[in-house]
Amino acid sequence: MEELPSKQRQFTLDLVSEHSNETSCWIVVNDMVYDVTSFLDKHPGGSDVVLEHAGTDATVAFEDKGHSKYGVKLLEKYIIGELIEVS
Ligand code: HEM
Fold it and tell me: What is the pTM of this model?
């Protein structure tokens, strides 16, 4: 089966929450899901502040820090899909 483009892959918050440490660190920002595991060591603010939000919706934390346009653009690199609600 052909793999869907990453933007079309869908994850529940339940699944995202299983990726909550430095060996697999997913975060949600504005309903999109990002695998930032490989970015942890590169984060200018250090890995700990990102890991605090691993496996959760980090929208507020990410936006509160007032990331630059560069930071927002960089995030796009790590997109793996979108968040879906479970009914
Ligand atoms: C998950 C929650 C996050 C928090 C709480 C957070 C927090 C911070 C903080 C406190 C700084 C300032 C560091 C300093 O100036 O000493 C910073 C800088 C930065 N962060 Fe994050 N960060 C988060 C996620 C991310 C992600 C996922 C990316 C990109 C993939 C990112 C990209 C950057 C960049 C590029 C900078 C340098 C300043 C800028 O260009 O805005 N951050 N972050």
Answer: 0.91
ipTM of model: 0.91
Domains of the chain: 6-83 (3.10.120.10)
- Give phi and psi for 30, each to the nearest 5: 45, 50
The preferred substitution site among 65, 72, 73, 76 for testing ligand 1, maximizing ligand atoms within 8 Å of CB, is 65
Q: What pLDDT does 2 receive?
A: 64
Q: Is the CB of 26 under 6 A from ligand 1?
A: no
- Beta carbons of 52 and 46 less than 8 angstroms apart: no
